[in-house]
TrEMBL record, chain A:
GO molecular function terms listed in the Swiss-Prot or TrEMBL record: heme binding; iron ion binding; monooxygenase activity; oxidoreductase activity, acting on paired donors, with incorporation or reduction of molecular oxygen
Organism: Paraglaciecola hydrolytica
Family the entry assigns: Belongs to the cytochrome P450 family.
SUPFAM superfamilies, per the entry: Cytochrome P450
Superkingdom, taxonomy of origin: Bacteria
Protein name (Swiss-Prot/TrEMBL): Cytochrome
Gene3D superfamilies given in the database record: Cytochrome P450
UniProtKB/TrEMBL annotation, chain B:
Pfam families given in the database record: Fer2 (PF00111)
Molecular function GO terms recorded: 2 iron, 2 sulfur cluster binding; electron transfer activity; metal ion binding
Keyword match Transport: no
Domain 2Fe-2S ferredoxin-type residues, every copy: 2-102
PROSITE patterns: 2FE2S_FER_2
Gene3D superfamilies xrefs: 3.10.20.30
Keywords annotated in UniProt: 2Fe-2S, Iron, Iron-sulfur, Metal-binding, Ubiquinone
Family matches, as InterPro entries: 2Fe-2S_ferredoxin-like_sf, 2Fe-2S_ferredoxin-type, Adrenodoxin-like, Beta-grasp_dom_sf
An annotated GO BP: P450-containing electron transport chain
Name of this chain's protein: 2Fe-2S ferredoxin-type domain-containing protein
Amino acid sequence: MKHSAINDPFEQARVEQGYAQVSDQDDPVTMLLRLKDVRKCAHNWQTFQSGAVPGRIVVPSEVSIRTTRQIPFEVDPPLHKSFRELLEPWFKRPLQADYQQQLHQQIETLVKSVLLGEPVEVIEDFALVLQSRALTLLLNIPFAESELWISWGTHVFRSEGEALDGDKANILYDYIDAQIDKAMAKPGDDLYSMLLAAEVNGNKLSKEEIKGVMILTFAGGRDTVINAVSNTIAYFSEHPESLQRLRDEPEIRGRAIEEFVRYFSPLTHMGRVVTEDTQVCEHAAKADTRVSLCWASANRDASVFENPNEVVLDRKMNPHVGFGFSHHNCLGATHARQILSTLINVLCENVQSIDFIDGQENIEHWDEFKRKVGYHNLNVKFNPA
Amino acid sequence: MAKITFITQDNISVVVEGQSGSLMALAVENGIKGIDGDCGGVCSCATCHVHVQADQMQLAGEASEIEKDMLELDDNVSEFSRLCCQIEISDALDGIVLTVAN
Ligand code: HEM
Ligand code: FES
């Protein structure tokens, strides 16, 4: 297999039965694998809820390592809608010209710094740096704060191997607690302060709620963006003709971004808790059990996508669910899209080609399904244009 | 050149002119409220949902299967619903009136 390819381990199960059962601690998960089923269940929040015990809709389950409810992720309508109405204007700020300019400058500086001919380790020294710096724009806090987040490394939120590591998560929780206290003492124009001043349905947010929003903003946008960025670099290293095409045809860059999100599917799946006995794919789903919406599998559904296992840069019809679907669709998608679009613009301007040197793949294991989501490390050389 | 009317949820009517490209792109360029076009027009986000005036459905044409599947699960769907990123501007659309769905 080509080194930048992302496999689809779900094909057979998706075609043959449409779902697959995988184990997770003592709370097994029925993964839904077809695009239509994934969409229907994402839409039907009454039967497939997000607002269960905090941590339960995540796979692997985080029930035993956290109690803070992540908001709006673990809240169901109608309260979910009130939180989204509060948060959406803030998370649309990446559409503003000055935000885009600053992001461009950040990414251009970073790309130019790796054009020196030395090999670069993309995960820690490029993707993590890019993601952390960009997050200062989303939070509207000083750029220098990114140095601390970079120093945490990629593993702060990641559960490596079998056990979920509660201690690692504590670094982030303690940090966010302290940041909220700081903003309480001295309000500014950052996201913490906005949340402290805000009301939802006539009530101020509790500190616990603010923490729930901030944790999610940090955690939800970390590995996903790092995977999207590093897979994009790996892809261009193997496909110089694609980089050239995007250079020549800037009008297809928007479609290419959606295609990368479909093909890479940086977030494999997300769970829901079943609230009443029902059926999915003619399979019984009992109340108080878990299903998951497998975005990665749905995005390769051949009944919807032609040549699903190919990157078609200018794919015109691309109803992917890489950013989720319906109520809980990704709140960070505007930021993520802006990052990818800026990255592609800067690469097209400054980079002729990228040489792949070596890399260690990051493979998720869901029982018999093994899915590559990105890399633990990836070494490349950027050649200037 | 086609004259196109968008009516937003707060009942404001905006007439814009377009020559080519999609109706979604035209709406976004003109800052039409309620048309976000998040996915850039690849039929993935449904933030470009409009209702076509009943007697103008044939102008807009019929939605593809993929588009219908998207619409089916969107808020405020009706038999006059379309995702306007899937409608190409041409002279034939002159005079069309679209109500923004969300
Ligand atoms: C390419 C990068 C990204 C991908 C592929 C991605 C994917 C997703 C997906 C699939 C969901 C749906 C989860 C569900 O239905 O339960 C989601 C939700 C969410 N994402 Fe992202 N995400 C990305 C980047 C980001 C970023 C950068 C942020 C913020 C910094 C973010 C914040 C969120 C939040 C807050 C939610 C919950 C929305 C809600 O429940 O209403 N994501 N994301
Ligand atoms: S713009 Fe995304 S579906 Fe029309």
